[in-house]
Amino acid sequence: MNRITLIMTLLTIGINCYSQNDTLYLEQEYVELNGERFNKSALSGDKTGEWVEYGMHVNSIIDFEEWLGSGDGFHTRENVKFEYRPLKKGEYFGIRYLISEKSDTINGDVYYHCSYLEIRNKIPSELYYIKAKGSYVSNQKEGEWKFYYPSGNILKNITYKNGVPVDNFNIYRKNGNVMIEIIKINNAAWTVTKYNKDGLKLETAIKKIEQFDILY
């Protein structure tokens, strides 16, 4: 399978599975989704307000090769890399920067090849997924946060206060089964229990919640 066929297959799969998402707009000060603005920062640089974390179904920089055609005595090939990021001053969606160019003459025919970097600040629904959604207050997670797998299935649902969980929560496998169960005993101790894929208990530990920070 060549590169073009592979990329087009990925895009087709994405369209079929993730069409419920809308275009994600990347701006320097925020991101916009469904008419709402997220990921704003205070003047201090601290995260504040509603927040979305997203991932890409493909690399953020995608190689895409395309033969533009051939004529009488010449052949032209173009390679474009799409980079998804906020636009800088003076840039616009789809602006291209020449990376390299070369030409060769073989048996009297000229072969021309050039590479470009194309900047895009709009991510179509088939290329991204929402990893997490919630709110920040003074650079700390606050209130309810939901975390997702690329499929859209729930990974975990946690309620925070000053960046620390305040209530029980589970971490789920991709099929929806509980993988880890975290239960609050009191303000000083939490129980963490791990289960195998069949739901059988593997191990249990009791520690302070901060000692399990990798889980939240």
Structure description:
By secondary structure, the protein is mostly beta strands. It has 1 helix and 18 strands. Strand 1 and strand 2 form a beta hairpin. The longest helix has 16 residues. The N terminus is likely disordered.
Strand order of the largest sheet: 4-5-11-12-13-14
Query: What fraction strand?
Result: over 45%
What is the approximate shape? elongated
pLDDT averaged over residues: 88
* Low-confidence residue ranges: 1-20
Strand elements, count: 18
DSSP summary: helix tally:
1
Helix content: under 10%
Structure at a glance:
The chain has 216 residues and is mostly beta strands. The chain is 7% helix and 56% strand.
List the helices and strands and how they pair.
Layout: H1 3-18, E1 24-26, E2 31-33, E3 36-38, E4 40-41, E5 47-56, E6 61-71, E7 74-84, E8 96-106, E9 109-120, E10 122-123, E11 128-137, E12 140-148, E13 154-161, E14 164-165, E15 169-172, E16 178-184, E17 190-195, E18 201-207
Parallel strand pairs: 7-9
Antiparallel strand pairs: 1-2, 1-10, 2-3, 4-5, 5-11, 6-7, 8-9, 11-12, 12-13, 13-14, 15-16, 16-17, 17-18
